[in-house]
Amino acid sequence: METRAAVLWDSPAERPYAKTRPLSIETLRLDPPGDGEILVRIGAAGLCHSDLSVINGDRPRPLPMALGHEAAGVVEQVGRGVSDLEPGDHVVMVFVPSCGYCAPCQEGRAALCEPGAQANGAGTLLSGGLRLHRDDTDVKHHVGVSGFAERAVVSRRSAVKIDPEIPLPKAALFGCAVLTGMGAVVNTCGLRSGETVAVIGLGGVGLSAVLGAVAGGATEVIAVDLADHKLEFAERLGATATVNAGDPDAVDKIRRAAGKGVHHAIETAGVRQAFEMAYAVTRRGGQTVTASLANPDSYVSIQHVNLVAEERTVRGSYLGGGVPSRDIPRFMALWKQARLPVERLMTSEGSLDDINAGFDALAEGTTVRHVLHIG
Q: pTM of the full predicted structure?
């Protein structure tokens, strides 16, 4: 079988991407699904900073690689051993396959699946196999998904079955932006009604965290970013206060808005200054959570005695700190109740052929989620 897919051959790439075209739309040979795998016709995929970080070199990956990890589609074929999915089922892809057997998986920490992390680092499916080829060249899989394509073969462990009534362009966002941002609020922070939250960095994940904090009953939801238009966007989503991160008094303003600091500060910008601001605005006894993937060469510094004397907590949150097969359906249930309006994050749309221009908009901060309509 053949499929058209967006392939990255070299990284880092220079902007503007619409001119340099780091992603080329290639016709690839796609092998049928192996044991424990499924073939999915992709309906929609969202452009995310995790994809951008591969293009700009912040997250080195083995190349060539077919990119895309936030995607939803319809099952067309199942491999041997797959008994709980069938052709016609709608699924959302997940960017960490969970084997179900390693120690983290048995502890309910699917994001830390050890075979999943190994496969993602190598650019293979969970089985270790490769299903994409151009002539004699193998093409790597992006975190087991490679969703910027007409069709994809993925591990059954990389897909969550969903309600077919949910439109695929909206459903795609639940695989990364919503799972990561909402999950950081619900799972990692364990937000309780009446607590206060600051979200620093208002991309798709950060704004999903804003939606999650509002839905979770936070009394103060303080949105922080360098871009005023994103602050205005966050207000429309329910943020109770906004602060421009470039303001010299930003830390004091955030702390005053929450009354001596927030219970939970969530950093989603992926830069050192944002994390340090998140730590600075966290109240005594509160927790600072980072849900971003910074450049591996980035380090942060915090005051040791402050961490102890104020009983602070610093936590990382990957894959929303939860279990996708549990969390995606329950977050979708909130959407169906009109309590989680994720469609408002879809600020631009396009086709697979327009993908490079879409990444320009993402890099420039002029779009929150650019969604590709594929199938």
A: 0.96
